[in-house]
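Work package 3, deliverable 3.1, input record:
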Amino acid sequence: MAVDFQNKNADITVAEDTQVCITEPSENATAYVHHLTLLDIYARGYVRPVALSYVTHDSRKVMNHFTDLMAAFNRVANALKAGNREIFIRDLQRKTEDLERTIASPEGLTSQEEEVTQYQCDPAILAEYLRDLIELQRKLQGSSSSPAASDSTSHSTPKRPGSSSSGASDRRADDLAPLQTEATCSPDSPEKEGDPDPEEEPCDRSDMAGLQYFPGNNYLQGTRDTLRTLFELCEQGHIQAQDLLKGIQARFSRPGIVLMLEKEDHNLLSELTPSLLTLGNTVALNYMLETERHSFLESHAISRPNSQVIHEASISSNAEESMSSSYGSAESSPPTETFKEEADPAKAAQTLHDTVTEALSSFTQTPPVAEALHPGLSNSLSNVDLVALFPALSQRPRSTSLSGHSSCESLSFQSFDSLTWEKGASLISFSPHRNPYQNGPPSAGLSPLQSFAAQLWGSYHSPSTSSCILEFKMKYSFAKHLIYSLLKGRTVVIHASPVHESVVRRLVASLSIFIVGMRGTWEPWRTTPVKLSELAHLRLIGLSKSKPLNVVVERYSTIFDYEAETLVGPGYHGLFIEDILTTRKQWPDEDTYLAYVHYLLFGMGVKGCLYYHLCCIGQLHLPGESRPQAFSPINKSTRNIKEMSGSRRSISDSQMSARFAPLSFADDDSRGSFFKKMNIEHSDVDIIEHFVDVIREQQSIQLSGQEQVAPVVHLDYSPCQVFKNILKRV
Amino acid sequence: RDPQWILKMFEFLKGKIKLGGDPRGSRRTPQDRTRNTINEIQILEKHKDIVRLLCKVDESRIASGCDDGVIIIWDRITGGDVMTLVGHNSRINCLLLLEPNTLVSGSADKTIRLWNLKTGECTKILRSHEGSVSCIVSLGNDTFCSGSNDRQLIIWRNDGEFLNKVERQEEENLHCMLPINGNRLITASNSSLLLVYKTDSFRYNKVLAYHKESVRCLVRASATTFASASLDGAIVIWQTESLSPLKVLFDPEKYKDENKVYIYNVRYLLPLGDRYLAATVGRGFRIYDVFSGELVLNCNDAHEADVNHIICLYEGTKFVTCAADSSIRLWGTSQRFNFKRKDKSNEHKETRIRKMEPILLGDMWAHSDSVNQLLAFTENAFASCSSDSSVILWKDGKVESEFRNRISAVLMYKQLKDMEKQYEDEKRKSRGEAPPSPTVPTDEVRSVPELPIRNPNFAKNIGTSELFESPKPQKKSPRSLQKELGERERSQSQVFQVEELAGVRLGRSSSDSVARLRNPRVPEYVFDYADRLYNEKKLPLDEIAQDLRGEGHSEAIVTGVLRRLIQQGNNDERKDNFES
């Protein structure tokens, strides 16, 4: 950046920030560059152009996340500007005072006459210079409400000039250390350029030369030959900016697939709605299809990658990128192995994908979900994209092809945007007057919601909470029955003696991914008896054997005796969990298997979503059925999709009321036909129904918004069996 | 795998399978679990002592009386406690709802309190008794009677004014009372005799003797009979007019076991319609045909301990029993017989039904101590109270699920409407059109009938009032109206059901919903039709009512239409004729 701003008068010309994407084919590098301008009293025109950049080998990453990068770098720029402004005002004030003192006492000049001969210091020039500075100072103070200043308040804490921390005398050499490495451009790392323009002389303005002679002006002693560093220009703002840059580096140096998934989930997480299906701590999908589709389109507003792109990105981002950091704080090594799922799980994945797609496509041939319910939104249903209806459909299946990431920075999603989602808080947000845990909340279960990516590449990487789901699967023959209980909403109690507390804690944390819904909580270890009323929320409990189990609670819970390796609970007969506990024994690592499990759970969620829309709130029978349709205006329509989309009519009130007013709901037969058509049988029906129940309950709570609602406990009367572990210990 | 190994595993698992999952190894296991859909409970834990009494206050509230003297009014929909009535300092023995918002409670602290259920205040304390108040019954005519262990029966006005008192003839503690025709009151106590008192002359009238042990239950069995049951298991049907014993339904000769425990103790009698009578007998329950005196259904070992209470659900097809062993069980019959079916003719007296076998449908454990009473508040939901100081609301999960479906549909509708509006705005913006000015309510808008949903919160939260709006009245010929009548009323009634359900369930203040239930809204087109008959054809109200009934309208709608017609035509003589 060799842009120069000539100062013709006392005004400061500050260019607005610009953001560009630069590619360098020879280096196979793409950079996002953010240009900003800082104020420097010793610079020409009082301005110093600065460039911040993020360089990566993955060009798609920059393009796909351009807006995110822009927002993130804007925060950095604002922090720098805020700090810089404080420093500039302080310098201006000091210089003004020094000039005034110099003009008032001309003997000060004569005493150092030998040193000033080359600058021909004239009191008249000094006076003019002083006037300019005073004018500048006045304008700066007058424009204290400028956007940059107002923005900066939220990101920095401006300190008064002269305070100990911002004083120039407290400057330490260590503070400059990061800046000394800024010029080194490392792949996939943010680069800050102090812009040492060789053509720019540090003090080429003759009228600035007199500063050296001013009494008390030791601030610039020894620094005249070099440009001031960013720290000198911004001080506190620089420190803050450094932290933000570290965050950016940590965030964007992750694989592209992670960023994509995270972004997708972020749209779900940013607006917690009761129609959101959560699995464990992660969100799966929004059961309101239009919302889901919109969030998807928003998240792919710039470039909507297809699954192949994502797939390639996942490979390239891991194979080629080396995530080194200038700051040395977030080192990560490239993965050593790449796992491609080609066995049964992939086939099953494709089968599920095809099934859902087929169901949706067949459905859209008569009354498409989105169009039937809201024709005004889509332009052409003939071009309706099923993937758009279920955006993650295009991505999650591919997640089985993820590379096995063995180590990534353990940075949770929340740390980026300071967003936290407490499970309890989310419920409270649904119904502000309700305390969902009035009967003794299990605090341990109130862990924050996080994105799917954050769970895979984030918190599970700490040793204490690392997942042991793969180990559990391999170790216990009754794993499917236990998972079935969790997925159908039946509380599971892991009963163990206190010596096994740590193991049970880890087991509970691992199995918590099967807990459905935001109301579901878990407690890793408990030493007090469990009450029946707590089963309204508690889905998974690690219980000490030091306390006897309540007989009534035992009746409605699945009991896993850790020491005896027995499970008492309903047996599972279905396909979903068999797929989860696939016979494949070799998995690259825990995360890969976890991703696979998430994918299958997501598939169940999608089926639940279909069930929810087809049989619960809409009662739109599946195509090919001869049953009379409840919502006659749509279902009796013989118009094809093109006609409907071509007319692009909106839903009139009469149609709406005709569609919803009867509100007669699907009977058991139509539900049965749905499950039959979807090939969902036996125990899997319970799982799908529980998914939908959870959504409906969340919505019910939001709508009722009432105080002191006694929690509803669902009693599971299923007959129980005793299952003994028949597998040998691993 | 090795077949032998599989066989071994099968044998092993066979021994381990717990059918029914009863940890205590109950002898009975549910035979048809699919018919038990009562699987949602709400545990209300605010009492601090044994809860013995439950009383239905209105459609959305129930009251529970505790041994610590506290009465709590619960919202049966949300499970929240609406109000806590504190005043008695000893056990609550009896609760009676006098008027829609007046509750009377009798306590072991010898006082009777009148509570205003709107404010939760105790409006009056009646201190005339000198012993524990054990029974309160309504006598009609704005009076009620209280019985105490001090041998006094006192008659009060509903506002708490003392009217008179009667000296009981026996010394034993009073158990129950039953008012019958002819201003007579029957009392049962620890003695085996039933005493009859005249409540108009405040005098002892007669003594009825049949039982061998203390009589614990008195109920009205039919229009002309009442039933009594005692510790010895004897169940006797008495004629109301003559006060003579009509039938003896059950009278075991040996009613004590070797430990001198009454094994046929009848704790509760439940009349089922006009013909059947259910009785808890020892550990089981029985259902008798009152007219023939035959035993229709017999379940001797329904529970492991004495059955305390029985209620009837699902329109007379299922029963729920509770016992001292803390269990609650759901029962059905093989024929799914409806015991509450009403026969208009008297032919049923001659018809005989075959004896039925009880089927255990559900074993519902939630209490940890003796379950003292059950209270059915709808056909598919009930409450139970227990010595574990809890009250539990039991609800049909299927019904609740359907209700949540409706809520989801409403939310979906709202969201789609919002998005459609947003889309229209964007479209308008892209065309460069100005946003529409906010609509000023016109007279027509104002004249739109008020929302059927009376609960403001519900309407506010939904924001889709049009969803439940009734169609605007349209001027149509009576003939075309008649054609549409059947179809439209069906859909309209469904809308009403939805709004009632929504209003009752989501209502914080239930009075509107209750009023709504009692006075159902008249569809405009029905009224329009009736109005034409009334004003144009000048038909008398009787004929209009008959016409509407002929069209298949419910009696409530007919009444509502007539009420509105009467309100309109104040000076019409037809109104006077009709009222007379």
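The longest strand of chain A covers residues 29-39.
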